[in-house]
C-alpha cells in the first residue's frame, strides 16, 4: 500500500508499506479516503523531524472500515468513519482524573505508530467514530481539528452575546470563527497578516477582519469595539501573536491559547501588564479529547458538520493525490502560493 514516511526534517518519502493485519481483538483497519495536512505536521516536517525515523506520517483523516477484531461491535466493514488520533495512557494521574488531554504519556497517530498518510491505517476501536451518510469524506477529515477547537472553547467562559477576536486565521483559527458563533458570540473579529486568509475568514462567518500591517490589532479592536472583546483566541502559534493577543480583551476578559509556537516567547512589558492590570483569565486548549473518551468534542463536531453549522469547503484550497505529498510540503514552505487546508487522497 502507499505510505508517506518521515525520515528526517524535510525528508518525506512515498514508499510501499506492509498491509495491516488484525493483531488485537479491538483493532479496526480503515481504508483512508481523505487525509489533511495539519499545521503541526508542517512544524514537524520543517523544524522538528520525526519521533521515530521512517514512521508513516499524518493524523487527520476519514475513511471506510475494512476489517475489525472480534471484540469490535460499534463498527463493521463498510462503515464510514473518522479517526481520533490521540492515545492517552489511561493510567497516569490526569487520565485517572478524567483528563485524557493532559495525559503525561499522550501520543498521537503518525508519531509512534503508523499514521493516516497511507492507503490504510489501524486504530483501537475506541478511537474509531462512525460518521453520518450525509457527511462527505473531505468534511469528515476535518472533524479532528474541529474537535480541537471545541475542546478549547468548552474550557473557556464564552457565552451567548460575547464578542470574540481570533488572532491567526489558519485552519484552527478559521474553525474557531465558526465555533465562536455556535457558542453564541454576537461579533467575531478575524485578525491576520495575510489578506488571503482574511478573505476565507469572511466566508467562514467573521463579522469584521483586521489586517494589522499598519495599525496594531488592539488599536483596531478598540476603534471597533471600544474597551475590547470578551474572549481573545490565539490560534496562529506565532511568537508575535502570542504576546499581542493579550491586549485584545477588555478588563476581566479571557485569552484562549490554541496555537503552539516553536520558539521562545519574549513578551514586552506593555502586553504582559495587560494580564495583571486587566485581571485577564488565561487558558490553554490542548488536543481534542475528554472523558468519557473520546469526548463530547467529537459528538458535537459531528453534529455541527452534519447540520451544516460548521462548513469547511471554503478552507480547502488543494486536493491532491498522496504521491504529491513530498512536493506539496515543500511548496507550502516556499510561501510563493496560497495554501489553506490541503487534503491528500491515497490510492486504495
TrEMBL record:
PANTHER family: L-THREONINE 3-DEHYDROGENASE. This is Galactitol-1-phosphate 5-dehydrogenase. Coiled coil: none annotated. It comes from the Bacteria. One of its GO terms (molecular function) is oxidoreductase activity. InterPro entries: ADH-like_C (IPR013149), ADH-like_N (IPR013154), ADH_Zn_CS (IPR002328), ER (IPR020843), GroES-like_sf (IPR011032), NAD(P)-bd_dom_sf (IPR036291), Zn_alcohol_dh (IPR050129). Its cofactor is Zn(2+). It comes from Salibacterium salarium. The keyword tRNA-binding does not apply. Residues 9-344 form the Enoyl reductase (ER) domain. SMART domains: PKS_ER (SM00829). The lineage of its organism: Bacteria, Bacillati, Bacillota, Bacilli, Bacillales. Belongs to the zinc-containing alcohol dehydrogenase family.
Amino acid at each position: 500500500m502507499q505510505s508517506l514516511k518521515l525520515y528526517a526534517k524535510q525528508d518525506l518519502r512515498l514508499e510501499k508499506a506492509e498491509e495491516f493485519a488484525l493483531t488485537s481483538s479491538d483493532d479496526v483497519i480503515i481504508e483512508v479516503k481523505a487525509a489533511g495536512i495539519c499545521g503541526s505536521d508542517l512544524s514537524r516536517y520543517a523544524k522538528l523531524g520525526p519521533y521515530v525515523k521512517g514512521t508513516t506520517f499524518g493524523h487527520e483523516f476519514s475513511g471506510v472500515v475494512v476489517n475489525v477484531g472480534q471484540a469490535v461491535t460499534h463498527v463493521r466493514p463498510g462503515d464510514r468513519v473518522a479517526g481520533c488520533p490521540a492515545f492517552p495512557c489511561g493510567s497516569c494521574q490526569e487520565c485517572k482524573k478524567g483528563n485524557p488531554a493532559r495525559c503525561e504519556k499522550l501520543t498521537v497517530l503518525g508519531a509512534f505508530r503508523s499514521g493516516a498518510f497511507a492507503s490504510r491505517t489501524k486504530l483501537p476501536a475506541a478511537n474509531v467514530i462512525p460518521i453520518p451518510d450525509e457527511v462527505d469524506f473531505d468534511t469528515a477529515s476535518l472533524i479532528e481539528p474541529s474537535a480541537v477547537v471545541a475542546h478549547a472553547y468548552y474550557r473557556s467562559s464564552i457565552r451567548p452575546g460575547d464578542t470574540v477576536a481570533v488572532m491567526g486565521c489558519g485552519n484552527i483559527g478559521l474553525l474557531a470563527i465558526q465555533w465562536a458563533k455556535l457558542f453564541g458570540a454576537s461579533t467575531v473579529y478575524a485578525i491576520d497578516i495575510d489578506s488571503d486568509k482574511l478573505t476565507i475568514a469572511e466566508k467562514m462567518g467573521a463579522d469584521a477582519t483586521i489586517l494589522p500591517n499598519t495599525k496594531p490589532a488592539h488599536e483596531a479592536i478598540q476603534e471597533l469595539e471600544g474597551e475590547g472583546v470578551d474572549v481573545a483566541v490565539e490560534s496562529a502559534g506565532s511568537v508575535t501573536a502570542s504576546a499581542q493577543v493579550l491586549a485584545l480583551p477588555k478588563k476581566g476578559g479571557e485569552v484562549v491559547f490554541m496555537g503552539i509556537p516553536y520558539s521562545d516567547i519574549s513578551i514586552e512589558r506593555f502586553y504582559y501588564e495587560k494580564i495583571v492590570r486587566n485581571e485577564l483569565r488565561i487558558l490553554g486548549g490542548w488536543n481534542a479529547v475528554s472523558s468519557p473518551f473520546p469526548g463530547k468534542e467529537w459528538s458535537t463536531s459531528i453534529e455541527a458538520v452534519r447540520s451544516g453549522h460548521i462548513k469547511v469547503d471554503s478552507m480547502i484550497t488543494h486536493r491532491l493525490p498522496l504521491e504529491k505529498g513530498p512536493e506539496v510540503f515543500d511548496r507550502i514552505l516556499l510561501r510563493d502560493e496560497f495554501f489553506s487546508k490541503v487534503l491528500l487522497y491515497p490510492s486504495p
